[in-house]
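can u pls check wat happens w/ pyridoxal-5'-phosphate
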Amino acid sequence: MNRQSHTDEPGGTSLDLATVRSLFPCLQQQIHGNPLVYLDSAATTQKPISVLEAMDGYYREYCSNIHRGIHTLSERATAKYEDVRNKVAALLRAPDPRSVVFTSGTTEAINLVARTIGRERVGSGDEVLISAMEHHANIVPWQMLCEEQGATLRVIPCSDEGDLILDDLVDLISEKTRIVAIGHVSNAIGTVNDIKRIIHSAREMGALTVVDAAQSVPHMNIDVEDLGCDFLAFSGHKVYGPTGSGVLWGRLELLEAMKPWQGGGDMIRTVSFEKTTYADVPLKFEAGTPDIAAVIGLGAALDFVNEIGLDAIYAHEKELLDEAVAKLDQVSGVQIVGRPNQRASSISFVLDGVHPHDVGTILDQKGVAVRAGHHCAMPLMKRFGLVATIRASFGVYSESEDVDSLVEAIDEVKVIFR
Amino acid sequence: MNRQSHTDEPGGTSLDLATVRSLFPCLQQQIHGNPLVYLDSAATTQKPISVLEAMDGYYREYCSNIHRGIHTLSERATAKYEDVRNKVAALLRAPDPRSVVFTSGTTEAINLVARTIGRERVGSGDEVLISAMEHHANIVPWQMLCEEQGATLRVIPCSDEGDLILDDLVDLISEKTRIVAIGHVSNAIGTVNDIKRIIHSAREMGALTVVDAAQSVPHMNIDVEDLGCDFLAFSGHKVYGPTGSGVLWGRLELLEAMKPWQGGGDMIRTVSFEKTTYADVPLKFEAGTPDIAAVIGLGAALDFVNEIGLDAIYAHEKELLDEAVAKLDQVSGVQIVGRPNQRASSISFVLDGVHPHDVGTILDQKGVAVRAGHHCAMPLMKRFGLVATIRASFGVYSESEDVDSLVEAIDEVKVIFR
Amino acid sequence: MNDFRDLYQEMILDHYRSPRNFGPLESQNLSARGYNPLCGDEVELHLYRDGDGILRDISFEGCGCAISTASASILSEVLKGRPENEVRGIFEEFHKMITEEGTAPEGEGLAKLKVFSGVKNFPVRVKCATLVWHTLIQALNEKEEEVCTE
Amino acid sequence: MNDFRDLYQEMILDHYRSPRNFGPLESQNLSARGYNPLCGDEVELHLYRDGDGILRDISFEGCGCAISTASASILSEVLKGRPENEVRGIFEEFHKMITEEGTAPEGEGLAKLKVFSGVKNFPVRVKCATLVWHTLIQALNEKEEEVCTE
Ligand SMILES: Cc1ncc(COP(=O)(O)O)c(C=O)c1O
Ligand SMILES: Cc1ncc(COP(=O)(O)O)c(C=O)c1O
């Protein structure tokens, strides 16, 4: 397996930002006559040229379906596709690449878990525990499961600072708790959760643990063995890869024991009308033609990330996040939502007297792309008594000037809404 | 809505093959020193430059997440994505684009139907009817459903000629029959099934009808209203589009009444821990970030298909299929599997005394890419007493010379295995 | 370039800051709710329609962004006292104005609606401007479900 | 260019046309089944291992493509009479030969295995050549499940 070495010095490699930015064609443009300031990486990141070239290479040079093909193009495509499994395993420090299942994204990965082992493990009277700051993708599948099975959804509360309140964890996790599903980093307010502690408590009570790592994989090193979780999901398109790529990592022995989810080609060993036998993991969970191009593109994205190093990316983004918090705090009328102990990816804020939607429209006119809305985290919005916030989120290509442009544009909003 | 006009004269437009071929970069290559002869379009088609450019354009010019984004990039991406819904509706002559659900492919589309309305409609003692020539994608989901619900899977038999035997349809379809799921064109032997007749009988008995159109959409005009079916599924990657794109078309009133399948972002209207309400169709069925680039690529693929016209494509491919049948019949030792009344897409054959797998390897050495295997249709293979066949399948770019190369390469196989 | 000052005209900002006819309506005999998932905004529209089909009184609650709030506020001012039929026609013209190259609804007392003509250049905001209008039609049709501008 | 004549050597074709030791084995005390989903081929291997761990007799049934059939046939010829331990070692060398730049297994009577060295240039066919070997190991380990070269 093709493991990457990981340096222990965070920030050891410092980032050549101009070079990094030059790799992203979409950043080189003007919006309404202003240079694009892309602060929406938590929704989806921009893609470096190498990712586009990897996909293009597949389509131009060896476009074909994979597995069970014996001609040269198919052989090449299969080898490339399977090699990305090794890259993902290396990224997550997973010992066995067979524990990597390709999905269309985080959402599908979580649904897969809920619909297979979730159904088997959660019965009437049981509990599933999530947190108050989950993305809808890590709420709705569990809600649907609980409703179907007559189980109860319980929620780890969130403090005014935007941290999960873990003091009462022992009360929240009991023998009834069959699954604990937690987001690693909040996409709405940027909190980095102490999931190791939550996982530890869950395991002690015999609950399965599912980590929604959609917002952590792009920003920090992850080691599934060290975390101790049973499943972990992320989306390729949020880590500089293509739309349509995603990953469910699961403990091999769990995956092997699980029933398949979707039926179709590739996930079977033999089919007859009387009896069908299923393929081994991971193919058992990859029914039908996968998004071959997207997986190959994800491989290139992980190469890109590894070349810079997640420690360097984390350090760079932390600096920007700290700077943004400090500068936004200087803007009168701006209220940052949440002051978590540790932050990654995003900052959410509101502006007195102006609806986030209006802020978003005016910012866009200045070339500043942010999200305004509930960020698929309605319960968290409600927790803070809001219907929407403005969210600025960062990536490896973000720069200090982006923060300044954001602040300037907010000033403009204030002029209009004075 | 952007409806295309459809000429009534098949073959009225004759195809400029050299120009068409020049649009496919992947075809311009040598394999083991021989020009590539791609006869594996039923597995996945090659992609024209316009499709690659459409995806590249998204990534380079307006890469962003869709829906609920208020900045310019997101607005552009959303508009492009949604416009493809109109194109798909036009392709299928569907009156309402809201009846078009994007999926990752045919497999996911069929699983969606089986897992939502399938579960609701099929109970203990009920029956689901498929045919003897289905692809595993249209067998396994129904088999899983029947097993779960205590229902029975029944099968329309296949004649020695490779046609479905419809004489006993009245016995096969009864009040117990809740779903009839049929492949329009067999990917393994190329039969075009008389699905209109089957759908008619199914509707008379009140059964839902599901058409697996993975192998028909790329080769012939389809009119869902005229067919009278309830659901129809196809894969973008088999109709010159990207991997990761697919479509489930369904009757609007059925889709509206159906419960959602996967939970997550975009498919909800409001989420709270107490109560979640779902979005309207089609978004209700599109949980999470979709494969935006692939859908946009599919739009370009449909433009490409419409520009040539499916009548012209059908006529061109029919000519080649007829020619291939005639020429393969001349090769001693070759046995074509199935002589259906109407053929599209594919021809399967075996060669006396040589295993298909060995044929495939030698053909590949000559640059001829075919499939050798069970083509995800094991029950059909068994019906013909085979474990595998060699399959040559055609696309709009296939040419008469491809057939000659195939025949020459088979002669070479015979020399070696003499 | 679309100037956002065309969108955020003074009149819109004024109605946003001080919405007219805001609050419940004692005499109400028709009402409906509308929801815009894009901004998360909700509006509740209260109507009193008399026996001759005249909208004698209109008020609203909820809303959120400047465009949707101002739209509700101005609607309530402009339509009060008009017959139902006329109101439906005005919505059609209003809708044309903000989606295609249509002109503003003509007629006495309708000039204020023109301030929304800038919305045309901001397609994602069209739903904000029309939310209250769709809710109005829902109320007039005496439909129960919440309107949603998905 | 990889010449397919390196793959389809005369000896392979000969064993494909006339497989040796084909059929059931009366004295069998070990057996296993293997399946290759790629070609759909199945092999059933029959062994008689004596008290000293010597493979006294070997036969097979099933198979399909030239490579897997010849591999089974040649295996049965070459390994008959060898002790179990030696057989495991030979498989390791055989596997190296057809996947990496390993040389053919050395030793008396093993020369025939060399005809499979061409498989190295045809990665998708490696599973065909090794199916019967994996099945052999499964039988020696007295495991029940069918081997599958997925
Ligand atoms: C007839 C038929 N149905 C279903 C499928 C499955 O399509 P996909 O693998 O794109 O989901 C295929 C393609 O392999 C097919 O040919
Ligand atoms: C924390 C979190 N979880 C899940 C998701 C869902 O990811 P996707 O839409 O790629 O399936 C997202 C992204 O929106 C997210 O930020």
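Residues 41 and 228 of chain B are 28 Å apart (CA to CA).
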